[in-house]
Description:
Layout: H1 7-10, H2 13-18, H3 21-41, H4 47-59, H5 64-74, H6 78-88, H7 103-139, E1 144-149, E2 152-158, H8 159-184, H9 203-214, H10 228-255, E3 262-263, H11 284-304, H12 316-343, E4 346-347, H13 349-355, H14 365-376, H15 378-395, H16 399-404, H17 407-421, H18 431-446
Antiparallel strand pairs: 1-2, 3-4
Helix pairs in contact: 3-4, 3-7, 3-9, 5-6, 7-8, 7-12, 7-18, 8-10, 8-18, 10-11, 10-12, 11-12, 14-15, 14-17
Amino acid sequence: MRSDLLSPLFASAEMQTVLSDRERVRAMLAFEAALAASEADAGLIPADAAAAITAACASFEPDMAAIGDATRRAGNPAIPFVKALTAHCAEPGRGCVHWGATSQDVIDTANALMFREAMALIDRETLALGDALAAQAEAHRSTVMPGRTLLQPALPITFGFKVAGWLDMVMRCRAALKTAAEQGLVLQFGGAVGTLAAIGSKATTVRQELGRRLDLPVPDIAWHTARDRGARIGAELAILTEALAKIAGDIALLMQAEVGEAAEPAGSGRGGSSTMPQKRNPVAAPAVRANAMRASGLASALLSAMPQEHERGAGGWHAEWTILPDLFEIAAGALGHVTETIADLEVRPQRMRANLDIGNGTLMSEALMMALAPTLGRQEAHHVVEAAARRAIAENRPLADICRETDEIVDGLGLEGIATALDPSTYLGIAEATVDTVVSRWKTIRN
């Protein structure tokens, strides 16, 4: 759905331009011009006919409303498009327009050309997001914060480590999308049932030349009803959108006033409430998560459309016409929101550090237990620390104070050892090294 009111929130204006009806017709004209030139090279149609078709494709100004109205009766836009182009073409080309091709050839190939541009836009946006994530990961490589499991404070991590996890996921999504595009954006040229019978013995020659002129890979066989290519692209776009929703969702949770560790960028008119003056609401996160909810349904519909009948489908193919563009648009919309958010994210290290003390410092219980284990044994250390943590919570006192009053802990670690064990910066494992590894891999990709 395209709406002047809603599309700016959920979609990408640039992607909508790439996938507009005018771009679709431009891609269809590119197919027809390349087809005529390829067939002239093979001696199937006269050279002057191909020249007339090429000229007609260059000067054709479609009446979108008329083609759209005729599409309702024809069943697909290629039929009225070819009819209008033929009427526009001068002789001797008029009788050679669309020679040997079928409607699905021009529509599928035009989609491949359009989606190639759409994929390039997605890749540019993904690279921009990766750069922003890498910068935040490096900047906060050692910014200690609570790690959370089941929405509860668990153990210390660094904010850079959290962001590196996001970056690692985005890298996988980008690689998978590139593979899906390489396999899926290919020429479609098979004629009525895929055999190119109307072209005859020149079929292979024409098909190879057509692919060369359009700079599209040429598959071994027509894929009119073998729809795994588009389904794979759509599925990867949905996965990317879901990954972006994970990032946006994490930021929304960090933005809660009770947590307050990070926030989406502030700005005039951004994130307010129509009734509560104090509110600072997330803006990007709800839009991205809404897009992800749509993406999963669209991907499911695309998979449902895959089993198409015999050599030409009755409905499944038609369903793809709007599903795939919608997936591109909402993926691009989500990318724009998340990239903008990460680039200007408000990070609050002091609040992160303060939140490590929630529960009177009991978040460091595992670190304390592991420090005691070599002396007391792991099971006994667990028993001693569990009792100390329960006291800290019940008495609303810092765990450090309880430890200094507990003989087994003082005897096992000493006062200095207790302080070290309860310092979150000493219990980060490979968090900082992991940030270095992930960011280094991103820089290798970028270079």
